[in-house]
Amino acid sequence: MRRYFRLLDDVTVPKRWHLGAATLADGTEPRLRAGIPFESSEIPSVPVTHAGRVLDFTLTSFAVPIASSRLADAVATVVGADVQRVPVDIAGQLGMVVLNALRVLRCVDELHSEFIKWTKQDHRPDLAGKYRQITKLVLDGAKVPHDAHLFRIEGSLVELIVSEAVKDAMVHVGCLGAKFIELETSGTRSHA
Known about the structure:
By secondary structure, the protein is mainly β.
């Protein structure tokens, strides 16, 4: 059975940098967590909100994954077309890219997970039925295709999930700033 991990930003790295939101020249935030390709020729800009140690992997203030080119190449070797590497402009730091995960899966085992969903009565009725918060995420293994190595969860695009193969590739090249939390998986895996 395959192992999967939630990929997070390790905020315990001492004297590390922190990054703000990715924006375009007009101030809009590109949709870099929605599982859709970024199709602009413009390079998004990401401010350093707290200067410090540059990390190989960082999440911006709105959970957009930023990686060094070396780390992004290692991820792409495993993931292939499921990731888009989008160059970003970070003041004084060359070679950083967004890891834009293009695969989105409906694979939460709701029976064994713990979550709250948005309702029409909440202040965001447009999000009704989507996950507002997932405090315990259990994947339904039968709904995760065998070739899924990097993906987001349908209905909650905050979670970024990687396979053990991606985790191993990241660790091999160095991934200072990345934190991996192993997820429970139920059911049997499909081999799509």
